[in-house]
Amino acid sequence: MQPRNNVPLAPLTTIGIGGTARWFAEADSEDSIIQALRFAHDRQLPLFVLGGGSNVLISDDGFPGLVLHMTLQGITQQDDLFQVAAGDIWDNFVSFAVERGFAGIECLAGIPGTVGGTPIQNVGAYGQEVSETIAAVRVLDLTTAAFIDLPASACSFSYRRSIFNSTESGRYIVTRVDYRLRPGGAPTLSYADLKNRFEKHPGQPSLAEVSAAVREIRRAKGMLIVPGEPDSHSVGSFFRNPVITENHYARLAAQFPIPVPRYPAGPGKVKLPAAWLVEHAGFSKGYVLGKAGISSRHTLALINRGGATAREIIVLRDRIASAVEHQYGIRLVPEPVWIY
């Protein structure tokens, strides 16, 4: 572990924005993580753990402490249990599992970032969430400096939420995630886009066909990282789909002539599509604000149109959130982590 100083962070993010790290180190082993913590502690530096850079917006001023870039690699398989290092590319692991006929994450193909980020946000898409397959999460507990394995039941998973980004935010560093997948299992086809794609398919589609279809759908929406595509310079969906009560929804339905789409979200609750709220608050695909903007293919993707600053993205974020709150009384919650 050899820290470097004044390392540019923008190239390590999918949105291509951010200043420099005062100190920067690679974590390719659990021992190197401990060394980095000692380095930061001895110099009283704040610490930030960076994975694939796909769900983060870094300040134009950079980060004043130590950025620890998670690069641990390796997949170990024991029957239906896959132990995957936090620095492995998530989509590579999806392909690894699908090629071996294991179901459970095929609909999560094409999601950028590393494995270590998946339990933090409880990553989900197209009818699946990682919490459905996570057996345990190996972490470094910063309060005790000990590595422990947390069972899924201890992670309090819910929609885009876990202890890692809520009640215990900042306490743990994820070093490995264990997934229990279904050998020979059928693909999940609960999402409308996928149902329509395979409506006339002869027989049940394979896991490979479903994961390929998901990547195609994501690319059509500008949600697949493709070099050279302007809409790829984003952090993915910038806002979470809000979950509100049935009573709140009833008030909205009575107030607006255009029905607001809704999806079940548990007893007494409904989930609303943030993209629909953004569009009906006046922000359409292709909206431009300086060098920032909205993807031409997906309303929830705020993009760097070339040379945008974090400040420009924040201004656009706040304009959208304020407009939605003013019109619908709903405060949108941003997805990406804000680092400053």
Automatic annotation (TrEMBL):
GO molecular function ontology, one term from the record: UDP-N-acetylmuramate dehydrogenase activity
Subcellular location, record wording: Cytoplasm
Pathway: Cell wall biogenesis; peptidoglycan biosynthesis
EC number: 1.3.1.98
GO biological process, alphabetically ordered: cell division; cell wall organization; peptidoglycan biosynthetic process; regulation of cell shape
Top-level EC class as recorded in UniProt: oxidoreductase
Record keywords, A-Z: Cell cycle, Cell division, Cell shape, Cell wall biogenesis/degradation, Cytoplasm, FAD, Flavoprotein, NADP, Oxidoreductase, Peptidoglycan synthesis
Family annotation (PROSITE patterns): FAD_PCMH
Cellular-component GO terms for this entry: cytosol
InterPro entries named in the record: FAD-bd_PCMH (IPR016166), FAD-bd_PCMH-like_sf (IPR036318), FAD-bd_PCMH_sub1 (IPR016167), FAD-bd_PCMH_sub2 (IPR016169), MurB (IPR003170), MurB_C (IPR011601), MurB_C_sf (IPR036635), Oxid_FAD_bind_N (IPR006094)
Cofactor names: FAD
Active site positions, chain numbering: R160, S237 (proton donor), E335
Major localization listed first in the record, in broad terms: cytoplasm
Domain FAD-binding PCMH-type: 16-184
Catalytic activity: UDP-N-acetyl-alpha-D-muramate + NADP(+) = UDP-N-acetyl-3-O-(1-carboxyvinyl)-alpha-D-glucosamine + NADPH + H(+)
Main function: Cell wall formation.
Record-stated family: Belongs to the MurB family.
Protein name in UniProt: UDP-N-acetylenolpyruvoylglucosamine reductase
Gene from which this protein is expressed: murB
